[in-house]
Amino acid sequence: MASLIYFKKVSEQSDSISYSFGEDPEEMSRQLTINTKTRMSTPDDDQIDYAYLKASRKINSVFKERNQWPERGMSAS
Asked: Model-level pTM?
């Protein structure tokens, strides 16, 4: 069974970037914030679960590959 997690950039500051994420690209109701200097992320609702980890890891992976924060994307496993 496949698991899909979608994410989309919602805001960007000089030291942080925020993404909405979720299992449905039309209803990404959760958010995470990434410190752009350390690349550490935190879920805005403090719920560290599979969806949060998948979104955070994929965003950081794309950044590492392209050296720029993605506008949107998805993680499939």
From this structure: 0.94
